[in-house]
Amino acid sequence: MIGEADMTGEAGMAGDLNQRHHIVVMGVAGCGKSTVGAAVAERLGAEFLDGDSLHPQSNIDKMASGTPLNDEDRAPWLAEIGRRFTASNSALVIACSALKRTYRDIIRTGDPSVFFVHLHGSRELLDERMKARPGHFMPVSLLDSQLATLEPLQADEAGIVVDIAQPVEKIVEGVVAALEGARS
Predict the structure, then answer these.
(1) What is the pTM of this model?
(2) Hey, which bits of the chain come out as E strands?
């Protein structure tokens, strides 16, 4: 089981993170990407962007109907997220599911130094959180497909895995500490 914070991919992190932070807060629906992403951005003095706002309407309609996105649906959206990092010369935090390694690779084509914060929680907690957010386009029925698709960060990927059962401030503290440690 993942503790409060589990670092991966520490090698090669020094360089670009000394000048700016480019961070993706990732995970399945209901894990708190937007909440944590906004809090991390505020703490770092960074811009925050909710990756859901970059989905084309066809993707939103597909998910709202209960149909999971496929890789073809996601590719242009992920490429746009990568482009946002390329275009940014300052700190930027983007909330994005980034469920598969190949998806994260697409994002990294925009900026290879992107640091991933994987928000991890139990199926029960995720289900509870999704049910508590009425009006969101992502139905609870798609949670299992997202969990089945999720590929955890690999050892060569710069990032941290964080338990979402913690308070947001503890998560933010863990992320900031991980970023500082990655720069050492």
Answers:
(1) 0.82
(2) 5-8, 22-26, 47-50, 92-95, 115-120, 159-163
